[in-house]
């Protein structure tokens, strides 16, 4: 059984579509999820995903870079005790140094932050194409996916699909690493398979290969 875990921005969605998921891809993923498991793993907040992918019904969502997991109607906060007090302190520090930021349900977002700083123990800063996400130590896309798989009682080999730096944590827990054609060079270098097409078309290409039974042959899996 395959478990596909895909990033959202510039992997499922196109920047030229303002990152709104195309209806044909939503339909394809929903149909695919009837036979295999499909998780969306993204740094996005739930409120934005509801606008950008209103018709998508995957097996589960791993949001805020692994800090928030949604399986059906269940919402799981993936953060240690004391995180929210620490987050308030970090927010105050950012305000003092004049860094504009926003709060997700769990993490802190900083757009176009060129001088990410160290906030000490129990905090990590992850960059993604020039933006920063401030998270609890030990939380990332890969660990979030593993928790989501356990919570959904799923089993199978993990195919991770991504395009940028924060997908490297997702790759670390994958059996097979897939980069879409528009991925950063550093991501492509780690990939077992690179799609011929970009963004959502690349993910659709991958799903078609899996459904046809040809994916294993393309990546030399016995």
From TrEMBL:
GO annotation, cellular component aspect: cytosol
InterPro entries documented for this protein: HAD-like_sf (IPR036412), HAD_sf (IPR023214)
EC identifiers of the protein: 3.1.3.18
Enzyme class: hydrolase
Gene Ontology terms for molecular function: magnesium ion binding; phosphoglycolate phosphatase activity
Highest taxon of the lineage: Archaea
NCBIfam families, per the entry: Pglycolate_arch, SPP-subfamily
PANTHER family: HAD SUPERFAMILY HYDROLASE-LIKE, TYPE 3, PHOSPHOSERINE PHOSPHATASE
Protein name stated in the entry: Phosphoglycolate phosphatase
Organism annotation: Metallosphaera cuprina (strain Ar-4)
């Amino acid at each position: 059984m395959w478990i596909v875990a895909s990033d959202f921005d510039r992997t499922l969605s196109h920047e030229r579509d303002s990152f709104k998921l195309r209806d044909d891809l939503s339909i394809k993923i929903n149909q695919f999820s009837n036979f295999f498991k499909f998780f969306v793993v993204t740094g996005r907040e739930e409120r934005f995903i509801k606008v950008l992918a209103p018709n998508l019904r995957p097996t589960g969502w791993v949001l805020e870079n692994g800090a928030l997991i949604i399986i059906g109607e269940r919402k799981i906060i993936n953060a240690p005790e004391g995180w929210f007090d620490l987050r308030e302190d970090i927010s105050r520090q950012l305000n003092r140094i004049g860094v504009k930021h926003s709060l997700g349900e769990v993490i802190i977002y900083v757009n176009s932050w060129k001088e990410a700083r160290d906030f000490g123990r129990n905090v990590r800063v992850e960059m993604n194409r020039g933006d920063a996400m401030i998270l609890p130590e030990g939380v990332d896309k890969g660990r979030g996916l593993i928790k989501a798989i356990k919570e959904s009682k799923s089993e199978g080999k993990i195919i991770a699909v991504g395009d940028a730096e924060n997908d490297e944590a997702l790759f670390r827990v994958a059996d097979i690493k897939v980069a879409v054609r528009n991925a950063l060079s550093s991501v492509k270098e780690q990939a077992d398979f690179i799609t011929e097409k970009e963004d959502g078309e690349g993910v659709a290409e991958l799903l078609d290969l899996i459904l046809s039974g040809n994916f294993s042959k393309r990546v030399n899996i016995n």
